[in-house]
Design brief:
single chain; alpha/beta; 6-stranded mixed sheet; membrane; LCP family protein required for cell wall assembly; LytR/CpsA/Psr_C; LytR/CpsA/Psr_CW_biosynth; transmembrane helix
Length: 409
């Protein structure tokens, strides 16, 4: 019986790999669990919460949907056997992630890290972006995804509206024709469902939400008794279509944990941020501070640490344009306010005033706010200023006031 369970788990684990759907990744991660750390990159250090804690014996698994060498779907997932919960964080493929030496606009998307530097490049990018350690990876192709769904007899999904789309240029070519309503999708139609994005008002975010719903339906299907007779053929399908650095021993071990502690909750989330344009190309700009907070909660047991992550927080983002900033020079050094105001502008912040402070004896720099401490922290992080204070007497024309001190000469 134990052997049978191991095989069952392996199948399910592999299934999780089904990149086209966050489902596979979630499930896959369920069986995998352990500690994590940080990664580095040539960006400004930002205080971060450290992920993965050895005490909970969890593993963070990176799931990648491979479409002819492109990462069409990216998830990080983990299974907390003590809480009996699956955590899954989806990372939009258009996430803005500039890398040293890669200067073309299209190379500044996180999916380019996979196409140009393969799984190691993507793994490093995700670790840097989230401030966590990725323990293992699972890669599944579109063909593998379809075979897995067909092997388990399809997945029941509620298609929210008619989906019709054709793209002969896509890799592979994309032809979608699904009718609205509750239905069992076979492999081909399931792939159409998880790839469809053009009918959602939120674009790729809408597609990710649909993938997560598919994931939940998938997990429900593969955890029912009806899946047992299909385990042998499923194991064969997985062995042909899944690439992973997990060993058979790892898979069996974590799979058993999954069986013994069947997840009661599946918590899904999307990397916080918003879409925007830069260099005439659309990107998904991450709110780095919130991203690291969410990553810590999901993959680090919500515990803060003093570790440093090199997340690319200090990069241009249209989100910053919603923050109105006044910059004052609190020293006798000419041009300091303009210097740091220009830096904020280059990062997208809305600088509404540049002037001298009333006094010029500030030994340290300060960031003040009268409305939103989160906005103040963003500005402080951008300029590496440690002093952030609330001051209700500030000018209401700005969200944040910066006073540059001697420490910024």
């Amino acid at each position: 019986m134990n052997k049978f369970f191991k095989i069952s788990i392996f199948v399910i684990l592999g299934i999780a790999i089904s990149i086209g759907t966050g489902i596979f990744m979630y499930y896959r991660n369920l069986n995998v669990v352990k500690p994590a750390n940080n990664s580095n990159d040539n960006t400004t250090p930002v205080k971060s919460v450290k992920q993965n804690d050895n005490s909970s014996d969890k593993k963070n698994i990176l799931f990648v949907g491979d479409a002819d060498g492109l990462s069409d779907t990216i998830f990080v997932a983990t299974f907390d056997k003590d809480k009996k919960e699956i955590e899954m964080l989806s990372i939009p493929r258009d996430t803005y992630y500039p890398r040293p030496g890669y200067n073309n606009p299209s190379e500044k998307k996180i999916n380019a890290a996979y196409s140009e530097q393969k799984i190691d490049g993507l793994k490093n990018a995700v670790e840097d972006l989230l401030g966590i350690k990725i323990d293992n990876y699972v890669i599944l192709t579109y063909d593998g995804f379809k075979e897995i769904i067909d092997t388990i007899g399809g997945v029941e999904v509620n298609v929210p509206f008619n989906m019709k789309y054709d793209d002969n240029v896509a890799k592979p070519p994309l032809h979608i024709n699904l009718k609205k309503g509750l239905q069992v999708l076979d492999g081909e139609k399931a792939l159409q469902f998880v790839r469809y994005r053009h009918g959602y008002t939120e674009g790729d975010i809408g597609r990710i939400n649909a993938q997560q719903e598919f994931l939940k339906a998938f997990i429900k299907k593969v955890t029912t008794p009806s899946i047992l007779p299909k385990i042998p053929s499923l194991a064969i399908t997985l062995s042909k279509n899944v690439r992973t650095d997990l060993t058979t021993k790892d898979i069996a071990s974590y799979a058993l944990d999954f069986v013994k502690n069947k997840p009661q909750n599946i918590n899904t989330s999307i990397l916080p941020g918003e879409g925007g344009y830069m260099d005439n190309l659309s990107y998904y700009f991450v709110d780095a501070q919130k991203a690291m907070e969410i990553a810590s909660e999901m993959f680090g047991n919500g515990q803060n640490s003093n570790s440093i992550s090199t997340v690319s927080q200090v990069t241009y983002s249209p989100i910053n344009n919603t923050i109105k900033v006044e910059v004052f020079n609190g020293t006798t050094v000419q041009g300091l306010a303009t210097k740091y105001a220009n830096k904020l502008k280059s990062l997208g912040f809305n600088v509404v005033k540049i002037a001298n402070a009333k006094t010029k004896d500030y030994s340290e720099s300060f960031v003040y706010t009268n409305s939103n401490i989160d906005k103040a922290n963003k500005v402080a992080n951008a300029l590496s200023i440690k002093n952030v204070l609330n001051d209700e007497s500030l000018d209401k024309n700005a969200d944040v006031v910066v006073i540059i001190g001697e420490d910024k000469k």
